[in-house]
Structure formats: C-alpha cells, structure tokens
Amino acid sequence: MISLWRIFWLETVALWRGWTAWMLLAAAIGWLLALPRLLTGDGTAEGARELYVRYGLGGVFALLVVSLLAAATGALATEREERRLQLSLVRPVSAFAVAWGRFLALAALGALVLAAAGALVLAAAWTDRPCSHVLRPLMESPREEAARMYDAYMSAPDTPPEVRKAKKSVVLRLLEQRAKDNYQSVQTNETASWRFPGFHARRLASPQAAPSVRFRFSGDFDMRDDVRGEIAADGLCGGVSNITQTAVTVPLSACGREGERDVLSFTNRGRGAVMLRPRRDVELLFPADAFGWNLLRALLVMASVLAAVVAFGVFLGAGLSRPVALFTAIVLLMVSEMSPSVVDQYPDQLETDRIDRVGLAVARAVGKGLRSVSAMSPLGSLAVGDCVEARDAAGSVAFDFLLVPLVLSALSAALIRRKPA
Amino acid sequence: MSEPVVRLERVSKTFRDFWLRPTVKAVDALDLDVRRGEVFGLLGPNGSGKSTTIKMVLGLLAPSSGRVSLFGRSPRSKAARAKLGYLPELSYLHPFLTARETLMYYAGLCGLPGSVARERTRQLLEMVKLSDVAGRAVGGFSKGMARRVALASALVGKPELLVLDEPTSGLDPVSTKEVKTLVKALAKKGMTVLTTSHLLADAEDICDRVMILNRGRTAAEGRVSELGESLEAFFLAKVGSGDDFALADFLA
User: DSSP secondary-structure letter at B98?
Assistant: First the structure.
C-alpha cells in the first residue's frame, strides 16, 4: 500500500511540476469563462445552461481525453525509455502497483479538472428545476423484431433469391437497423397506445410529482402542419396543439378520466397523419432531484469514461514506445469516435465491396466494444434536463473506472515485466 | 557453508529479433557464486556480457537457459528484491524531485513507513554529504552529486546485496575515490557487493574476488591478488590492440 501511494505521489508530482496539471486546469477554467463571449445562446436560461453543458463541459471533456491520453501513453513508456522503470522494478513492489499507481494519478487529475469545471457550470447555470426520470415504452426490441421479420421473409414465397442466399447475420443486422427506425403512423382520429411498465407504481410512490410526456417528431414529417392531439395516461390528460418544434413536452394533469393502468395513449385530432418512432420518440418524464445532483452523476460518468481512456493509454505505453503508443491511441480514438456514425450511416447492404465490408466490420467491432460507453450520453441528458440515472452512473464507475482499468493495468504489468528496459 | 547470495548455474542469454531469430548470444553457460559479505567484481570489455548478467541477477531479464537465484529464490520474488539495492550505470533520477523526495520515494517502494523513511533518508543524506542540498531538485545536480543520490537511494531499503553497474563511470577522480571509499565502508559492515567494471583499478581497489568475462563466457575467476598480472595483461591487451585475442595466452 505504501509503495502504491508512493507511485501515485510520484506521478502526481510529475504532472504538477511538469506543468501538465496547471495547464489543463487553466485551459478548462479559461474555456468556461470565455464561453459566454464566444457563443451566444437563445437568450433564455435554458439555452445558456445547454451551452454550458454541451459546449462548456463537452469541450473540457474533449480536452481531457486528448491530453490525458497523451500523458498516459508517456507514463510508462517514458519511464522505460529513460531507464527509470527498472529502478522501481528491482524494489519489492509489484509491476501491477507500478501501472495502477500511475493510472490512479492520471485519473485523479482528470476527476479534479472535471470537478473544477463542474463547480463553475453549477455556479453559472444553476436551476431549481429538477431533472426528469425518463420512462420509455415497453416494446419488442429491434433485435426481436428483426428475428420475427426474418422468419416472415424466409417463409414468404415472393422473397427474392438474393435475400435467401445472403448471410443470416447480415440480413438480421439490416432488419434490426430498420426496426430501430420503424415509424408508426397515427391517422386522423386514430388512437395509438404504448405500455409504460412502472408508470402507475411511480405515480403512487410520489403523487405530488407531475409527469409529462415528450414526443419527438422526425424530419420526415412536416412539423408546420397543424398537429393536434389528446393524450391520456393513467387518469391524467394533456393536449398537443399547433406544435412547431421537433420535440414537444406536454405536462399531464388529472382530468377525472379512468385510464388503463401503465398505458399512454395519443389520439390524433389534426388534419394529417402523425408519424413517430415509438421506441425513441415517446417518453414519459417524472420530476426527480435537483440539477446539482444530476450534474454530479454526469461528472461521475465522464470521470469514469476518462479513467478507462487513461488506463488504455497507460497500457499502450507499457508495450510500445511513446510515439508509437501515442499514434496508436489517437488513431483508435478517431476510429472509436467515428464508428457509431459509420455504422448508422452505412448499414449493411447485401452487395458491398470487400473493402467496404472490412471497414464496416472494424467500425462495428469497435462500436460494439464501446457500446456501454457510447450508449450513455451524460451531457446530452444533462443539457435537456433528463436525469443521469444513479444506476447507470454506478454501472459506469464499476465498469469504466474499476473493471476496465484493473484488467488493463494487469496487462500493463505483464508487459512491463516482459520489457522492463 | 551457507547458500551463496547470488548463484548462476549454466546461465545463457540469447537476444532475439522481432521474428524470434537469435541475434546475439550475450551470456554463454555462465556459472557464478557470490558469497555473503564479499565484494565480487564482474570485469570485462564492453560487450562482454556484464550488464546482461547483472540484469538477469536483478530479474530484469529472464535467462534463455540455466537458473539464476538470489538468496536462494527467484530474482523476481518480492522477498529477494527486498534485500537488494541497485545502482545503475547512469543515475536515472527523476529530475523534478529533490534529493530528499527521491530517497523518500524509494523508501516508499521498499515499504518503509513514513517516520522510518524520513529517518533513513536523513541518515543517508548525511552519509553521502548532501544534507545541505536535500531540498534542491536533483535535475540541477552535478554528475557526482547525482551519483551520490543514486547510491543513497540504492541503500535506502537496508539491502543485504548491493549491485553496482559501473559505479565510477563518468566520475572525476575525487568523486571516484569517494564512491570507492563508500563501497569499502559498506563491505566492512558486512554488505555483499556485486559490481561490474571495465576498469582494472576499480577491481583492484574494492573487489575480493573477480570474474573476467569475454564474449559472454568466463575467461578467468579468482582473487584479485591471484590474478594480478594476468588481469593487467588482459586489460592492457584489450585496450592496446582492440582486436580479437586468446586470453589463454596471457593466462598461461
């Protein structure tokens, strides 16, 4: 334990005396202080908050990812190249402690800078409006829907032979992608219903909390049309009228009507059909805790993701020379950033060039590996006032801050034992 | 007779390239025993395998074949490393740390708790005569001062075996004398010392026994007094001609 503390201390001293930590702190604070002069919002407090969260904290996070990744790749690589690593490894200290202590110091610096940035954002964009728990409708998952559709295709006599000959996994992936974007059309005077398990229980648990519904309408639908509708949910009602935005939040209030438990229904009273993707576009919102707590949970998730990035940098530096480790880290970072959009924009086609298929396979593999990280969008949630759930934050800490770094530090230890000098 | 502090049995080390093809056989079937309390010197010209041997003793390199033991254990065991102090050929200090912090850092790696580490640091700084500059960053130290800090940090865990790789390398005559005096004083206190050098004078001054390595093989081994003339001839020939020669001619 003493040796681990000493390694942590050494790396921390190196970061502060080498100016890295001071520069990061100054850059983060400077960016947040300059933000109101650089970007103009819509003049509302909500708009200003969104600017601070999306661009302020987002910018600080991007800065930390790049700079801490660079520092992490050098943490062990430089020590090895300057022959100091061997002086630690001949002491009664485990190679794991050598890697873990360095990881902890870098992760702690990331957390400290994020905390400072978070404190500034809290002061500048504080609101007494609570964040909202988000409930989504219970539906067949896109994967289940894809499997069902696949079976239906294969049993249909008119399915083209090229689809029958195609690899099952490819067709399933294509169908899953389509299922995610599946639109539901609600005609005039027609009612669509979705089940929200737990809605009734939540209402009973906090009867004072006033829920609301959020609809998002896709760009395929012309929003300037007169959209009118009635919403009913578990004895609560609300109305939509003449909306001009792609997303609209409708507060629900008691209307004395008996509704089906856990079911939300929307009746279209407009002149044209309404189209939406229920998996993504219909959400029930429950007011929860204060902005400060939500910000704290978002910062925890960000610090955890940062820790995983740092651990990866330390791991690369354990096995490669510093320039090679840094180059590899930056290339992988770019691939990981681009992967989700590549997969979204270029879903599997049955006929693609070999090189395209290889590129898609790589992008998909990276996307899959980072699914747990990329699926969470703490800044997006924070910006629109959705709660970053405590369960998700705890999961991120356990996975990104502990499990991933522990595994990567163990691998780093094996590498530096193999190649100490 | 007690177990030797360091034992190498038929140890060989072959370096390989990226494709695992053998490139250099740095050490070839080496047998070596270093007994408790003696100052043992590994001598030989550059490229003779001294540093590779030292790195295998320290557990920094694994032998390709044969067995290395330190205090009867694997050199990679924590118990063996707890009794080890190492001074590399160059000091390799963290330039942003002060002399005191450097010693405190290595004391921490040896597991010494704070108060013990502080006291040990104070004693060592006094011993190497650096107490008055203990708060200065070692990056600004002269080579001799840095060497003394490195030696003190090698001693911080109260080692039973001190491994010195070219301890006087690059030092001026005064600093060289100081280091030698220190090593002799430590040996007098019963510390086992394994040192390498390509300078005959070093071996003559501080070593009880020496082994001469040439191309990774043992060329001669014995007490300095026994090998005196042969040693001198060997080194003169190496320095003088620089070409390949048969050591046997000089030892005959």
Answer: B
Number of domains in chain A: 2
In a domain, A383, yes or no: yes
- List the strands of the sheet with B161-165, edge to edge: B84-87, B161-165, B192-197, B39-43, B209-214, B217-223
pLDDT (mean) for A36-64: 86
Looking at the fold, whether A300 and A229 belong to one and the same domain comes out as no
For residue A219, name the pLDDT band (cuts at 50, 70, 90): very low
Residues A266, A301 within the same domain: no
- According to the model, what pLDDT value does residue B162 have? 92
Domain that holds residue A259: 142-287
Give the end of a domain, one of A225, A252, A287. Answer: A287
The answer to whether residues A233 and A259 touch, using CB atoms and an 8 Å cutoff, is yes
State whether A24 and A115 are in the same domain: yes
Report the alpha-carbon angle B211-B215-B217, nearest 5: 45
Mean residue pLDDT across chain A? 85
Chain A, residues 73-102, CB within 8 A of chain B, namely 82-84, 86-94
Task: Check A2 against B58: CB less than 8 A apart.
Answer: no
Kindly give the pairing relationship between strand B39-43 and strand A247-251: unpaired
Weakest-pLDDT range from A70-74, A164-168, A216-220, B78-82: A216-220
Task: For residue A92, list chain B residues with Cβ-Cβ distance below 8 A.
Answer: 78-79, 81-82, 109-111, 157
- Put simply, whether A396 touches B (Cβ < 8 Å) is no
The answer to whether the Cβ–Cβ distance between B113 and A2 falls below 8 Å is: yes
pTM to 2 decimals? Answer: 0.83
Chain A, nearest residue to B56 by Cα: A90
SS3 A178: helix
**Fold for domain B1-83+186-252?**
Rossmann fold (3.40.50)
C-alpha A19 chain-centroid distance? 31
Residues A324 and A412 in one domain: yes
Residue ending a domain, choose from A270, A287, A304: A287
pLDDT in tens, B73-91: 998 888 999 999 999 888 8
- Whether residue A137 lies inside any domain: the answer is no
B228 falls in which pLDDT band (50, 70, 90)? low
Query: What are the structure tokens assigned to A203, written together?
Result: 């209402």
- Written as six digits, the tokens of A205 are 């648990």
Does the CB of B227 have a partner CB in chain A at under 8 Å? Answer: no
Q: Cα–Cα–Cα angle for B58, B61, B66, nearest 5°?
A: 95
> Has residue A177 been placed in a domain?
yes
